[in-house]
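User: quick one, fold this
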Amino acid sequence: MPAQLGSFAINSTSVVAADYIVHGGTATVRYLASTGTVTISTLTAVRVAGSFSFTAYNYSGGLSSPLVKTITNGRFDVAR
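Assistant:
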């Protein structure tokens, strides 16, 4: 994803990607985001912060009945 301020789309053709992974028991379940947004609101030489939201799907049950996770109001604040 670009190292610049702004909002960036999460979709099947963008360079922005997101996953939601559930670890537990004996299985790991991965959901792939297909729609959503990542917003970078702070970008300095030492810090990146912003927000994200997306809808992610897991097709282990087949294309006709995917498992769906909707992530809202996500926040990140990381050192560079």
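User: anything notable?
Assistant: Strands lie at 6-10, 19-24, 27-43, 47-58, 67-79.
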